[in-house]
Give the backbone structure.
Amino acid sequence: MQNEKGQGVSHATDSQLPAKVQEKVPADIEKQVPDALHDTGSNAETGKVSHAIGESKVPQAIQEGLPEKVERMVPEAIHPTGDGK
């Protein structure tokens, strides 16, 4: 049963998090986890998206979790964002 904070159920369609964790975390916090780890379909709303324009050697969950500024600092050979660094 879900309470007023969205606890008690998972809001993910696919998740690598344990079921008990999914159920105990409030919905607004649950949506902050990168979709590659816990897919709530909220990446576009939260800004947790990858800015890679090619194949990256960085795991998807890390790409989604890093702030864009940090993501763009990674060398192009590892994580191509088109910034030419």
User: Anything to note?
Assistant: DSSP finds five helices and two strands in the chain. The helical segments are 19-24, 27-30, 43-46, 60-65, 68-71. The chain has a mean pLDDT of 78.
